[in-house]
Amino acid sequence: MGRLESGRFPGAVRVAGAVAAFALVLIFLAGPVWLVARGLCPAPLAAIGGAGPAATGPATSSAPATATAPAWRPPKFTARQAERDAMVAVIRRYGLTDRAVLAVMAAVPRHEFVPPAYRRRAYADTPLPIGYGQTISQPYIVAEMTRLLRLKPNSRVLEIGTGSGYQAAVLAHFTPHVYTVEIIKPLAVAARKRLKRLGYTVVKVRHADGYYGWAEKGPFDAIIVTCAAGQIPPPLIKQLKPGGRMVIPVGGRYATQTLMLVEKRPDGSVRSRSLMAVSFVPLLRAEPKR
Fold it and tell me: Which residues constitute the domain of residue 143?
């Protein structure tokens, strides 16, 4: 073919030139887009959020992380459920009608917290021996003392007198922040293992003199004492939050004991009142060091 002379068909020359220029523009624009789509080069900054200086480190989210630990779910049990329901019916006859407390009493397997020799009587409305001169409290008393604490899902609660761990398991159905102190080491060790085996993994058990509480984990919204003290221990009052409540039996081993409700007001002042006559094992103390 001959060459196109500039003097011939001038309009065609202009059209051809324009088409060629337009094709070059398309190639220039399409090339980076194709590479971005293929992941071979980074997208322009404007395409990922607007103009600004190039990032000099790993990309980070502008919003804070919102991941949280999964909500605590107490274990569920079906064995001997009919007996637990019958036990709850007895508790109702005392006049206790708190639905949340009754539901928990129907959920916790009391037979797992008593020695094998007493398991047939596990759901009787009576205290039972657990060894070392200690007992598991009467179901009604467990329910009533729990009700008096007015626990919320975020409450921090301290128990003095772990025993077999039954009361701590009941508390764990209301809040995962349960701390319990037991002075008799074999009971503390056994309770820790039992609670873990049954799935109450949130309960923290400590072997120590309960008179002094557990200051490092305080202050507490609620304190429950499951053994009778001659007087209300001052360290426990100190570890109670303003607005907190403590339930404690007060009295000697062979004297009349009274269940007391202790409330700390927002200003730090303390009010206590007697609720009912009770009978508990005494609050044991550590042997003085020589």
Answer: 131-278
